[in-house]
Write a structure and sequence with these properties.
alpha/beta
Length: about 400
Amino acid sequence: MPHKPGSAALRHITVLDLTHVRAGPVCVRQLADWGANVWRVERVGNPADFAGRHDADFQHKHRNKRAVALDLKSAEGRAVLYKMVEKADVIVENYRPDVKQRLGIDYDTLHKINPRLIYCSISAFGQDGPYKDRPGVDQIIQGLGGFMSITGEPGRGPMRAGIPLSDISAGLFASIGVLTALVERSVSGEGQWVQTSLLESQIFMLDLQAIRYLVDGVVPKQVGNEHPTGVPTNAYRTKDGYINIAPTPPMWDRLCRAIDREDLISHPDYDDKNKRRAKRKEINAMIEAITSQMDTKSLLAKLDAADVPAGVIYTIEETFADPQVQHLEMVQTVQSPKLGELRLMRQPIQMSRTPQKLTTPTPEFGEHTDEILTEVGFSADEITRLRETGAVE
């Protein structure tokens, strides 16, 4: 089937997807969902990623793409890729730095074929430096990037995030880099090499915690569900569960009134944000002594009425059942020939003229090889010969 863009925003852009695992596919998914014509290049003889091809995760990462199977280790397979590069605007890869050199698909080689090409590389540690050849996955990077040292409760040891944070952030930052390079190309006419890594992305995600160290010399520590600087902010026990309460410093008086402790507003130990920070444990204990005697629903109603930020702590099932989440229509469906109707998440961005939608399911292995090679300029006889040699599948 021909390219069926999920949005008009990037329908004029063709992307070569040489990625695997997560960070790379996340990057390309951003482009595919906004309408880019994505040619996912899969390895001959390798019909699945590390997960099963029909697993939920694989289906989520590769929707709105088409697939072609090439043998990049063969000269003929690389020749096919080079012809695709001539037609492409973007290529995204997450091979280890030395692998693309051996395969002859590095930036310098492909830039000579198409000087307008935006070449995006995602790696664990960067394209050069002492760690460039080390294997790296999300959990390794969460630890090396400092994130695990500030996550979790004090005294309980380091804790990873419940999602592959460095993978996802690297993919998102890579897509921002690609889009920035495309905008710049519209002025200069030249492509360029866009690079990011899981390590750089993870460090950038430290945000205020990194800046507390760089500017103030403070080495942040674990504070569990509390805020590193704002007090009170925490997950407080209720009679039937937990609730997050997160007032800003000027909201202290509102919180005190909402929990019927107006006496705390002008208390000399708590009437300043710095004093409250010094009394973190004491304040949190006082608040939880009150919240633990209230049911979550009525407590949330009182806090909402006082305009104090608060929210229920959901399971994922409860999140998708929430009326606001349902109103936002975060779930879209796509019909898979193999799996039937799939419920997947849409992009968390809404655009007035060029909205995004899911149009095609994740392709089967090499499903569009003939179709894509025909678009690139190969004849039917040439495609047959390439298949006979094993260069394509």
